[in-house]
Structure formats: C-alpha cells, structure tokens
Design brief:
Elements lengths: L2 H19 L2 E6 L2 E6 L7 E6 L1 H13 L4
Length: 68
C-alpha cells in the first residue's frame, strides 16, 4: 500500500472514530461523506457530499462545542 493511501485510510479511520464519539453516522459514496446525527438534536443534523476535509472540520466544530 502506498504511503498516500495509508494516510488517507488513517484519516478516514480517525474521522469515523470521532464521528462515533460524537454520535454521528458516516456514509461514504466515492470520495464524499454524509454525516448524520439524530441524538439530542431536533431536527436531525445531516450534511451531505462533504470532502474528508469538510467532514473533519464539521466534527471538530461539534467537538469544540461539547457535542459529544
């Protein structure tokens, strides 16, 4: 496995772990992500067609807000 592919896999694994901690589900379609949170929010939070950078940023914002 190339170094670039390994780093991408590590980023995705970290993204999924953080999403789980913050009670988001993650769906991946191609190279885009959909994040959905239904716990403690009304209506549900759903962001679609995010790049990995955008998904990481969204989760970091929730983390800083104490959303977990």
């Amino acid at each position: 496995m190339s170094n670039v592919m390994q780093k991408q896999n590590e980023r995705e694994a970290h993204l999924r772990a953080l999403a789980d901690l913050l009670e988001f589900t993650v769906e991946k379609t191609g190279d885009r992500f959909t994040l959905t949170r239904t716990a403690d929010v009304s209506p549900p939070v759903r962001e679609e067609r995010l790049t990995i950078d955008q998904a990481e940023e969204l989760l970091e914002i929730w983390k800083l807000r104490g959303g977990g």
